[in-house]
Amino acid sequence: MKKKLGYFGFILLLLAGVLAGCNSAEEGKSGEKKKVVIGYFPNLDHVPAMIAREKGYYEEALGKDVDVEYKSFPDGGAFMVALKTGDVQAGLVGPGPVMNNFTNGADVKIVAGSSSGGTVIVARKGSGINSVKDFAGKTFITPGVGCTHDVQMETFVKDFGLESNRIGGSMKHTTGKPAQYAGLFESGKVDLAAVPEPWGSLLVKEEGAKIIVDSDEIAFGTTLPNSVLATSGKLIKEDPELVQDIVDAHKKAIDFINNNPEEAKKLTIAAIKKDTKQELAKDVVDSAWKRITYTADINEKVVQEFADSSYDLKFLKKQPDFTALIDNQFAKK
After folding, report:
1. pLDDT 10s digit of each residue in the chain, 333 long?
2. 34-40 and 90-93: which strand pairing?
3. Which DSSP string corresponds to 35-59?
4. Which H/E stretch holds residue 270?
5. How far apart are the first and last CA of the chain?
6. Can you give the pTM of this predicted structure?
């Protein structure tokens, strides 16, 4: 009898455990927090995202009911794929990939500026390049085909009668992550790089590279946003309050950068080291910082001019119209 009671007691306990497990799953599902993933690149154009992460601005703005995660990307193409698949909800990216994807029908919106300036063209030591006149027949590298820095460079050299081999010119184009440029310079495989800071200053210091075209000389150099805060039109429609909170946190980070430049540099050096395992020297960051402006404002006219140039250079298949690309309502509040 005791054995039977023990057996049935075991069954009852087992059922109770299963039911308890089911209830826990239901509660976990219903009480699940909303997750927001913020994307960015580990370079100085994207400092606002790294500062917001280090200072907890997104967590503060979005509240306890939202889990905030951060994800770094190697290039704009990878970021845009993640935005389209819903793996990130918002983040910083160059305007080039945003425009290219918008033109091809992607659901993407620019909701604020982030940084402008900071793109330089550098030549490797021993390349024999001293001015733009020496670019013909040389190999140049950018982070991606049609990326912001690529368009800036190709727009600039076009005024000197030069083009990349992509469109029949003599300049050979290749792509790669900026962190790889030092090795490519050393090997002689690449002569020139159109690169965002701090990589330009780093190449100058560590590889003896020479800045041939500074950030205020390259096409759209001081007015074009080199990074923007982008999200999807779907998120704007479904949860405009969430988008407003994201933009507010972004603006708070920019205010911190401009009001506390030395502390912002320190946090940035630590953040880039965390992401890339590479620690930037303070003098490199100081040099690069001078070329970059951090602002949430965005010049819509310049964005359209940049897009028109992308079309002229055959990065875009159709004449672009970006009237619906930029949504300034959140940044203006």
Report:
1. 444 444 434 333 433 443 343 332 233 344 678 999 999 998 898 999 999 999 999 999 999 999 999 999 988 889 999 999 999 999 999 888 898 899 889 999 999 999 999 899 999 999 999 999 999 999 999 988 988 899 999 999 999 999 999 999 999 999 998 889 999 999 999 999 999 888 899 999 999 999 999 999 999 988 889 899 999 999 999 999 999 999 999 999 999 999 999 999 999 999 999 998 888 899 999 999 999 999 999 888 998 999 899 999 999 888 888 889 999 999 998
2. parallel
3. EEEEEE-SSGGGHHHHHHHHHTHHH
4. helix 261-276
5. 75
6. 0.79
Amino acid letter, residue 252: K
The CA distance from 197 to 237, in Å, is 35
Report residue 242 as tokens: 């969430």
Look at the alpha carbons of 60, 63, 69, 75 in this order and tell me if their dihedral is positive or negative.
negative
The one-letter amino acid at 186: E
Where b means 16+ CB within 10 Å and e means fewer, 134-144 reads ebeebbbbbbb
